[in-house]
Design goal:
- This protein is α/β, with parallel strands linked by helices and about 290 residues long.
- The protein folds into 2 domains: about 80 residues, 3-Layer(aba) Sandwich (Rossmann fold), CATH 3.40.50; about 130 residues, 3-Layer(aba) Sandwich (Rossmann fold).
- Helices cover about 40% and strands about 15% of the residues.
- The chain contains 10 helices and 11 strands.
- The strands form 3 sheets. It has a 6-stranded parallel beta sheet with strand order 1-11-8-7-5-6. The chain has a 3-stranded parallel beta sheet with strand order 3-2-4, with helices on both faces.
- Strand 2, helix 2 and strand 3 form a beta-alpha-beta unit.
- Helix 6 packs across helix 7 and helix 6 packs across helix 10.
- The termini are far apart.
- The structure holds nicotinamide-adenine-dinucleotide.
- The site of nicotinamide-adenine-dinucleotide (NAD) has 23 residues, from helix 10.
């Protein structure tokens, strides 16, 4: 038996349709959701991400404002731009594309964004709210993974054993907090854990966010588990570049009950959740339910 392939593109389209509909309702109510995207430097991957985010926002009817700054921008200049965006009533979401050049402290920049406009969910106030199990602006990639899980397994994930492989601030840790909020039993493993594969074989849900091509093979997966592959790894095969995940799709798909592909799994959900977060931020700032 081969696993169900979770269609991230289709589920992302549903999330985007919802964001589009809510944006139209907000505009009718006199609030035009606005997203500011800030890019510092010319990192090619970041340029593609920013372009996609701006285009997706426009396709949802969200007003988008792009700020491209040179790689040499001093920290003070970026902080004063964030200050202006914080005050600007046309802006409901602020996203600063990471990574930042070395002269700029990522921590200072994230702390400067008004938490209500922090659509990436990286501000300590939003991180703390998530840890306390409260509703808050939540990082887009783990939020997207949760939506994929709920579409696949149903809304009630309570009591399931989930393992999160990776403990980064942008994926692993918020993913674990979200699954805990859904009443899962959550195990987190990382590079220092020796028996990660054995722990993973116990889990009903496996979320891999590592950055190592094909690391999670069939030995890591219990028959019938649901596998979410966050990894995006560029590899060269037979002289051609292609994207692969952290999960070895070929060996895992005959074992798992459901699995996300790369590309076409988590990736489209991340950007769709950014739109959802922007709409939620606009509603909350306008004091609408
Ligand atoms: P990161 O480098 O910040 O963190 C990787 C984590 O993996 C670390 O906690 C590390 O301890 C753990 N790890 C490393 N080797 C391990 C091992 N052998 N066993 C167990 N754990 C191990 O990476 P990140 O930012 O969390 O991203 C992870 C992957 O997800 C990357 O491939 C990244 O490109 C991808 N990503 C995808 C999206 C998306 O939208 N699909 C978004 C963010 C990140």
């Amino acid at each position: 038996m081969s696993a169900l392939i979770i269609d991230g593109k289709a589920i992302a389209e549903k999330t985007l349709a919802n964001a589009r509909e809510e944006t139209a309702l907000l505009i009718k109510a006199g609030v035009h959701p606005g997203l500011a995207v800030v890019l510092v430097g010319e990192d090619p991957a970041s340029q593609v991400y920013v372009k996609n985010k701006v285009e997706k926002a426009r396709s949802c009817g969200i007003a988008s404002f792009e700020h491209r700054l040179s790689a040499k921008t001093p920290e003070t200049e970026l902080l004063s731009l964030i200050h202006r965006l914080n005050q600007d009533n046309a802006i409901h979401g602020i996203l600063v594309q990471l990574p930042l050049p070395p002269q700029i402290s990522e921590q200072k920049v994230l702390a400067a964004i008004r938490p209500e406009k922090d659509v990436d969910g990286f501000h300590a106030e939003n991180v703390g709210a998530l840890q306390q199990g409260r509703q808050a602006l939540t990082p887009c990639t783990p939020l997207g993974c949760l939506l994929l899980l709920k579409e696949t397994l149903g809304q009630d994930l309570s009591g399931k054993h989930a393992i999160v492989i990776g403990r980064s601030n942008i994926v692993g840790k918020p993913m674990a907090a979200l699954l805990l909020r859904e009443h899962c039993a959550v195990t987190i493993v990382h590079s220092r854990v020796k028996n990660a594969a054995a722990l993973s074989r116990e889990a009903d849900i496996v979320v891999a966010a590592v950055g190592r091509a094909g690391m999670v093979n069939a030995d890591w997966v219990k028959p019938g588990a649901t596998v979410i592959d966050v990894g995006i790894n560029r590899i060269t095969e037979n002289g051609k570049n292609r994207l692969v995940g952290d999960v070895d799709f070929t060996s895992v798909s005959p074992v798992a009950a459901a699995i996300t592909p790369v590309p076409g799994g988590v990736g489209p959900m991340t950007i769709a959740c950014l739109m959802q977060n922007t709409v939620h931020a606009a509603k909350a700032i306008a004091g609408l339910p």
